[in-house]
Design brief:
- This protein has 127 residues and is an alpha+beta fold.
- It has one domain (27-123).
- It has five helices and four strands; from the N terminus they run αββαααβαβ.
- The chain has a four-stranded antiparallel sheet.
- The radius of gyration is 20 Å and the shape is elongated.
Amino acid sequence: MVVLVVSPAMRNRDSFPLSTYPIYAHSRSRLVTFDTVEGVVAGGDIERLSLEAIAQTDDPLIAASVVSNAIRNDDADALCATVAARVVAPVQRVEVVSEQHDTIEWLRGDDSVRGRIVHAVCAVDGG
């Protein structure tokens, strides 16, 4: 039994029913980039928007793909306008952004943003 469990690692082969789980088999960079849509309130503070506001879903993977696809397909302005129509005061504007975070600082609860690219900005009606 032990030989069967260890054999995929020895052969460096991933297959059913025994797997080396290659998705977890290498270290990741400490810096990670996330595409998202954020609300900006008076004074410039950022308000994290809900998945429902961003992509009308409760699934974070779907919301992330909606935002990333919009950025990749040069549709960030359209997504921005759609999200801006869904949010209300105190949000004054909506921004479609790519943020680079230090994951260790994020997990510690510290300021983790190391870079930020704004792809689109939209005003919120009444905001």
